[in-house]
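Example (one chain per record):
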Amino acid sequence: MVLLHVLFEHAVGYALLALKEVEEISLLLPQVEECVLNLGKFHNIVRLVAFCPFSSSQVALENANAVSEGVVHEDLRLLLETHLPAKKKKVLLGVGDPKIGAAIQEELGYNCQTGGVIAEILRGVRLHFHNLVKGLTDLSACKAQLGLGHSYSRAKVKFNVNRVDNMIIQSISLLDQLDKDINTFSMRVREWYGYHFPELVKIINDNATYCRLAQFIGNRRELNEEKLEKLEELTMDGAKAKAILDASRSSMGMDISAIDLINIESFSSRVVSLSEYRQSLHTYLRSKMSQVAPSLSALIGEAVGARLIAHAGSLTNLAKYPASTVQILGAEKALFRALKTRGNTPKYGLIFHSTFIGRAAAKNKGRISRYLANKCSIASRIDCFSEVPTSVFGEKLREQVEERLSFYETGEIPRKNLDVMKEAMVQAEEAAAEITRKLEKQEKKRLKKEKKRLAAMALASSENSSTPEECEETSEKPKKKKKQKPQEVPQENGMEDPSVSFSKPKKKKSFSKEELVSSDLEETAGNVSLPKRKKSFPKEEPVSDLEESGNKSVPKKKRKFSKEETLSSGPEEPAVAKNSGSKKKKKLRKLSQQD
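Predicted structure:
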């Protein structure tokens, strides 16, 4: 008995279901339709074999794209190979899409079935899917469907910004409208200014030049030899400038007031600005055509190629048209009139504006239009489906049309299409490599600029973050100085700072007899000698200032210490003071005995 399985694709994953009682289901289709709506009866005929959830929304989008294109994804392949029986002849797989069914049958070898009872079973699975899978609620299933639908639509609508044919359609339509408007306004300026200077109409034929001259001349009576150089610049012809000057002196036109001249000049300036904008728009159209359809524009020109794209609706639609449709594109009225009256059908439509048909003889116009339509169809398909746009193919196709024209006129046999396309392929590969190289360089430059910008931003942010710390440091510095100032007071009172390193005596000083005698006399003198020694203490104040100002080198001088200075050296020299005192006493006794 053949085992019937059903594959169901959902936004959350793939589900593989097995059906019970296959023979009864295949015979009783109306009963199946009734069982679909009832969950209990549906569970009796369908059971879930395996469920493969998608790991992320990106994986779900990839699988949805693969199913829509009729490609077996790796996740689907793994599910079917794992959970379907090994004997493929005894397995019948039901799928909803015939394309994915054909792909599964071709790659995996399982027999697939669509339509009939499979469609009813899939309808029931879609209705009761959240009850078949454990842990899946109706709300989460709806959210997954909504998210996948948005991402799938966004991926389908996504396009290359640099290859948008909508801009070409709008620009060529605006260009045609501007041509009509500029022509109408120029005729109005000619008629209006012609009352004052009628001879200018016959001398100047170009509309834009006429409007510039009307704006420049104004009142013809003020035109003189000084303005002749400016007239030559505007007309680009010295003879015409001289003719305008002569005609202004003997003109038959009526006089005009100043207010009328102001209105004519303002209107002429509007027409001139419109004509200048028309030129800039034409330049923009040429640049867009070189990006979107370079081969088509190289073959028949930017304007005719843009009109073909606009009439077809898009470059893709034009690429889908056969050459016979491209030939009469734009002549639909004449075609249907000919079909209705059983007359001759038109030979050409929009491609008539190309230079090739105008250069051909009358008997060869139909032949060259057919050949040109064929080449236009090829060029549009190359532009639509090539990854790197290049004008090599368009130039080669143009050469072929030129050779065909010369063949009609002189009988010279043109080159074969195969040889021409081989040359074009070689040149196109070189051009594509060069274009990709330029794009890579541009991308590298862009990345370098981006890195520099990010580095500058990081540096600026670090500077902004370091400024408050610097402010705190500067605020702390004066506080430290204030704390150091009171330390100078005990130095004035005779106490030394223990932190000062040079105040510690490194060697014991020896005293001579004369010094001891002088010191004894000073002791006997008492208060008389004390003020002199007090005057010597302020001399140590600069030393403390040097200590505070930094680790500056202090000149070391050998000093002779008196008895009081040795005693006042404080706790730093206790042993030295005791030894020196005992020696002094002994020497004093000896001197007193000698006396």
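Caption: The radius of gyration is 52 Å.
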